[in-house]
Amino acid sequence: MLSLLAASRLAFVLPSQRLAHVAPPLLRAGSRAIAIMGRKPGVLEPEDLAAFVETAGEKLVVVDVRNPDFSIEPGDGKSNEKAPLSDCGTSARPRAVNAPFDRTSDSLDLSKLDALVEAGGGKAAPIITHCGGGGRGQKAKDYLDSQGFTNVVNGGGPEDNECWACFGTK
Question: Which CATH number does the domain housing residue 160 bear?
Answer without folding.
Answer: 3.40.250.10
